[in-house]
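Section 3.1: Structural characterization of target chains.
Under the original work plan, the team committed to producing a structural model for every single-chain target entering the pipeline before any wet-lab resources were allocated. The record below documents one such target. The sequence was received from the expression subgroup and is listed exactly as submitted; it comprises 125 residues.
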Amino acid sequence: MRTMTPPDPPIEKLIPLKPKDHYILYALLDENRYGYAIAQEISRLSEGRVRVEAGNLHRHIQKLIRQGLVEPSEAKPTPDVEDERRRYYTITDAGRQVWKADIRHMESLIRAARKRSSPPNARGV
């Protein structure tokens, strides 16, 4: 049973994403995951720099669901070995768009920082 997805929020109002929200969306890009698997993927993607505790993770996921960026999923990667208590989540199309917009935002920050940190002669000063 699929839940009704709220209308897509304006992307510009959601950018920049909080780091944990960014990583949750990142963790869901390629497959549906349940809470603990999301936390493990975040740790892997961030090379251990970002850790999310279960309660905090679920608060973030619920917020992303309210924003229409994530939704519960009944599709499970391996249904024959899955624990029925696990709740799986998937990224929505709006979630993908917002994640990509957040990447573009970070890239623009990096370009500005590089430009500013370059030697004065390289900036034409």
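The beta strands are 33-34, 70-73, 88-91.
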